[in-house]
Design goal:
Number of domains: 1
Strand order of the largest sheet: 2-1-4-3
Number of helices: 4
Largest sheet: 4 strands, mixed
Oligomer: single chain
Radius of gyration: 23 Å
Strand content: 5-15%
Number of strands: 4
Helix content: 25-40%
CATH topology: Helix Hairpins
CATH class: Mainly Alpha
Order of helices and strands: HHHEEEEH
Distance between the termini: 71 Å
């Protein structure tokens, strides 16, 4: 199954199983909610579903958005070595700190990508006397 579909199903499942339902989930009856949960679970592979159930058993959500390089579940900045998604929408990734599934919005992926071809400024050489080349001796 494609990653965007899995993420969509996972987002729906998180909304449906939340302790305090919000938005479109509030208007559903208990039977409609249970049917929607079963339908959403069918769109998720068993390995991802098992990871999701671990979080649900703890009363937590299993999916969080990345905003400005920060996981919105644990509010920790992702390590610099954490790969940014090549395709922002549809990549399934896991937070290094709290373990929740992460998703990026398109605006976030564009905003946090490092500039290509950036040139690092050179620092002046330091001599044994602690002065750089550009500084005259007294």
């Amino acid at each position: 199954m494609e990653s965007p579909r899995i993420l969509h199903a996972l987002r729906r499942l998180n909304d449906l199983q939340a302790k305090r339902p919000r938005g479109w989930v509030k208007g559903l009856t208990e039977n409609e909610r249970m049917l929607a949960i079963e339908h959403a679970r069918m769109g998720i592979p068993s390995s991802i579903l098992a990871h999701h159930e671990l979080f649900v058993s703890r009363g937590k959500r299993s999916l969080a958005e990345v905003r400005h390089g920060v996981c919105t579940a644990c509010l920790m900045k992702l390590p610099a070595a954490h790969p940014l998604p090549a395709s922002p929408i549809g990549r399934i990734d896991v937070c290094d700190h709290c373990g929740v599934f992460l998703f990026w919005t398109e605006a976030e992926a564009v905003e946090t990508k490092p500039p290509t071809g950036a040139v690092k400024a050179k620092r002046p050489k330091v001599t044994s006397q602690g002065k750089g080349k550009n500084h005259p001796s007294p």
